[in-house]
Design brief:
Shape: flat
Radius of gyration: 28 Å
Order of helices and strands: HHHHHEEHHH
Strand content: 15-25%
Number of strands: 2
Helix content: 40-55%
Length: 152
């Protein structure tokens, strides 16, 4: 199965090689629809196969866990802020080597400030009971229809 696209037959995809390809596509961040396209099948067929062949579901899950973890780590890093080094290089002639070499001329520590939007997103999803926008309100109404419309 060296081709990118499959021929749409499930037995090609429940092999070790087929499952590895599915997992790889999921790890690269492809959606189920894109994965089914690469397999040469309709998305509904992929969903049917997931019900019939748990190994396909597991391959998708394993691949998605990797990329989901990477995105989660990046979101947390952005929410908290971080520092990094930025290096500037110049090409300089090295007479001993008789060629140009890259020489670090400057290193600056830069700071990325915490991102409030990333913090809000994180908290709403990790602590929804404390951070969700929608609040449940208990409102009791003790008005009769007569009070509302009058005595006419």
């Amino acid at each position: 199965m060296s081709r990118k696209r499959g021929n749409g037959k499930y037995h090609d995809w429940i092999t070790e090689e087929g499952l590895q390809k599915i997992e790889e596509w999921a790890r690269k961040g492809l959606t189920d629809e894109q994965i089914s396209h690469n397999m040469g099948i309709h998305p509904s067929t992929l969903y049917d196969w997931q019900k019939k062949f748990p190994e396909i579901t597991e391959a998708l899950k394993r691949g998605k866990e990797v990329v989901d973890q990477a995105v989660e780590n990046a979101l947390l890093k952005r929410a908290l802020g971080y520092e990094y080094e930025e290096k500037t290089y110049e090409r300089t002639w090295n007479p001993k080597l008789e060629k140009y070499i890259k020489v670090n001329t400057k290193t600056v520590v830069k700071q990325v400030l915490p991102d409030v939007t990333a913090q809000i997103f994180w908290l709403k999803n990790r602590k929804p009971n404390e951070w969700r926008d929608k609040k449940d309100l208990d409102v009791a109404v003790n008005k009769s229809l007569e009070d509302f419309f009058g005595d006419d």
